[in-house]
Design brief:
Shape: elongated
Order of helices and strands: EEEEEEEEEHEEHHHEHEHEEHEEEHEHH
CATH superfamily of the largest domain: P-loop containing nucleotide triphosphate hydrolases
Strand order of the largest sheet: 11-12-13-9-14-15
Number of domains: 3
CATH architecture of the largest domain: 3-Layer(aba) Sandwich
Helix content: 25-40%
Largest sheet: 6 strands, mixed
Radius of gyration: 26 Å
Number of helices: 10
Strand content: 25-35%
Distance between the termini: 57 Å
Length: 388
């Protein structure tokens, strides 16, 4: 084992210390009982928070490292409900989010996403249910380990760009010199170095939003919660926002973001929560979500499709709708939508067409998108959300 972990010791009281192991990646050695006995820092710079220990046992720190597994849930909701008067904004939501994942809160506007986030952060309290954040019963106990970008964006207009990032970092425990260094580091990394000395009122909306997210992560939090981070951003700044989220994930930070734009979630998320009318509709991986939608095959042919209608793998065949010049909608000549039965192979349709002499101009067996999942599971509310 090469090298030794660097320890930072903070006096909390006359008899109690709080300590940290500082490194980007740490190799842990466990004994036969699964207890961590040694930690070796690898290249880089990540902070692991360890439990408080009694001061009389401080000498054991290098051999008794009770550091949590990275597989633990950083967020645990159990039957969380929120009423506003008689209106139930969140209805019995339960979920667990593992450390180091990118997790999407998806749903139409007004579905309960922001209310859930505010309960997680203890901005508001749930009517019933329990919430644990980073192993604690209150986010307030671990506030310095959390970064938060609220839905309502805003900056102090007269403050310089670097200064506002550094200011928020100091509120989360960084020293003034470290906060300043961190501010300039982030501004350079994400293309805002030339604006560091400018007041935030001189920034465009997209630049201002980037500054606000940098302010929320300047203290290097373990858990980052972003409420509608893509709202109002142009395509270029949306790409930058995605880059920031991916960078956080590469450094094993847990990122939760809410959105009603499915494309962002499909590109970024490992797991999603789909919520509608305050209730959890789906919680799982992207692949699991797509399996909830029946597989479709789209074909185009000038031949009769009757010979394949009774194929065992096919649920039904219907002509695809096509808009005409006068705005009317009717069947499109020769274009068909085929819905497959569960676990059926779309290649069976292609083989059947060849065997029965049906000549195809096109054959599309693409998997369903997350938007298709959204429409399928949320129903009419999804259509309403697309026009908001």
């Amino acid at each position: 084992m090469t090298g030794q972990p660097k320890f930072e010791i903070f006096l909390k009281s006359d008899t109690e210390f709080f300590w940290k192991v500082v490194a980007a990646e740490v190799k842990f050695v466990k004994d036969a009982q699964g207890k961590v006995t040694k930690a070796t820092p690898l290249q880089g710079g990540r902070t692991f928070d360890a439990p408080r220990i009694d001061g009389s046992k401080a000498h054991q720190m290098k051999t008794d490292l009770a550091i949590p597994e990275t597989s633990r849930a950083v967020l645990d909701l159990r039957n969380v409900t929120k009423f506003y008067g008689d209106f139930k904004a969140v209805d019995e939501v339960s979920l667990q989010i593992p450390a180091g994942s990118i997790y999407g809160f998806l749903g139409p506007n007004g579905a309960g996403k922001t209310t859930t986030i505010r309960m997680v952060l203890e901005i508001i309290k749930p009517t019933s249910g329990t919430i644990r954040v980073l192993g604690q019963p209150s986010a307030l106990k671990v506030r310095d380990r959390i970064g938060y970008l609220p839905e309502e964006k805003g900056l102090y207009k007269k403050m310089k760009v670097w200064s506002i990032i550094a200011y928020f970092a100091t509120l989360k425990g960084l020293g003034r010199s470290e906060a300043r260094r961190r501010a300039f580091e982030l501004l350079e990394k994400y293309g805002l170095k030339d604006f560091a000395e400018k007041p935030t009122e001189a920034l465009s909306k997209g630049m201002g939003q980037k500054v606000q997210i940098l302010a929320s992560i300047a203290h290097d939090p373990e858990l980052v919660i972003l409420d509608e981070p893509f709202s109002g951003l142009d395509p270029v700044n949306q790409q930058v926002m995605e880059e920031i989220i991916r960078d956080l994930a590469r450094r094993q930070r847990t990122v939760i973001f809410s959105t009603h734009v499915m494309q962002h979630a499909e590109r970024l998320c490992e797991r999603i929560l789909l919520i509608a009318r305050g209730r959890k509709i789906f919680d799982g991986t992207i692949a699991e979500a797509k399996r909830t939608v029946p597989r479709r095959v789209l074909i185009e042919t000038g031949d009769d499709v009757a010979p394949i209608q009774n194929l065992a793998e096919i649920e039904f065949i219907k002509p695809m709708a096509n808009g005409s010049d006068d705005g009317a909608v009717g069947p499109s000549q020769g274009r068909w939508e085929i819905q497959m039965r569960d676990n059926a192979d779309p290649q069976a349709v292609l083989q059947a067409c060849f065997a029965r002499g049906i000549r195809l101009r096109s054959f599309d067996q693409s998997e369903p998108s997350l938007h298709d999942v959204f429409v399928q599971l949320v129903g009419p509310e999804a259509r309403e959300a697309s026009f908001r």
